[in-house]
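The instructor's notes for this session suggest beginning with a concrete chain rather than abstract definitions. Hand out the sequence below and ask the class to guess, before any prediction is shown, which regions might be ordered.
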Amino acid sequence: MAVSLRRRSVLQIFATAALLAAAAFGAVRSTAGIQGSGLRVFEAIGPIATVGGGGVTVGGVDYSTSGARVIIDGHPGKLDHLRAGNVVSIRGTLLQGGHLHIAAASSVTFSGNVRGAVSAVDVPSATFFVLGQTVHVTSDTRFDPRLQPAGLQGLQNGAAVEVSGFADAAGDIVASRVSSVGGSGVARVVGSVQNLDPQQKTFNIHSLSVSYANAVVRGTLSEGTSVAVQGPQPAGNGALNATQVNVATALQAQPGALGRIEGLITDFASGNFFEVDGQAVSVDSLTHLNVQVPLGLNVYVRVTGVFDGNGTLMARRVHSKASH
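After discussion, reveal the predicted structure:
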C-alpha cells in the first residue's frame, strides 16, 4: 500500500526528538539488555487527559515527567504550559515487574496543527476556519475557558487561536483542543505541500498560499511532503510569508519498542492493515479487538502494540469509538 502523505507532526517529531530513554530512570545508565530486563522503550501519542503533579495522563496511562524534555511548537517549554486536550507525543521507558508498572517520559512534544486568526465560524456544521484550514468540533473538543461564551459560540472572526487535534483522511482537522493565544502575531500551520512552485518559491497547504522566498528551509521540499510552516500572521486572507519551513521526517521507532497511539484512520487497505495519521498498523490473530464501530476511514482508534523492524506497529489491542 502506498504510504499516506497525510502525516501529522506529532508522529513525525519522534524522528527528530533525541532518544533519552537511558536517562528516564536515574539508576539506569545503559540501554544494553533494556528490552529483556523489564525496562521497555515506549512511544505514545494522544490527547492529554490531565497534566500536573509531575506527570501527564494520556490514553489512560500516567507518565512521570520528572526530568523530561518538553518541546512546544518546536521550542523548549515547560510542562505547566500544556493543557488537557493538547495532543502530545511521548517517548521514554516503561518499567515492568510483577504488579509494578512505571512509565517515565524522557521527552514530551506538542505541536499544534494550526495557529492563527479565525476567518469564519459555521456553528450549525460545528466547523470553523483558520489560515485556510478546516477545523471540525466534536463533543470531545475542549475549549479554552477564556473563550466566552463557552464552546464554538465563543469564537469570533479575527480571534487568535491554536488548534490541536487529529487530521482526517481529507486533511481536515478534528479538534481535540482550541486554545486562545491572545494577540499573538505568530502564524503556524502543519500540513502537506500542494502545488509546489520552486521558481516562485510558493506552495499551498489546502487553500492557504505560502511563500517561502525569505524562509529558512530545513529539509527538502517536494509535492506531498509534510511540513511545519511559521511566519507573521497574514493580513486578511493573504498569503503566509514564511520565516521557517521544517520538513518532517518519518517516524523511526526502535524495533521492539512499545507503541500506544491514538488518532483517526487516514488510509484503510483492510481490517488487517491500515494507517493512523500515516503510521502503519498491522492486525493479526493475536490482536484483541474492542470495536465499538467498524474499522474504516476516519474512525477514531487507540492502538497498543510493538513496532517491528519496518516501523509497522504490530497491534496487540485496537479500540475504536464513534466520533461525536
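Then share the key points. The longest strand covers residues 39-52. The longest helix spans residues 9-12.
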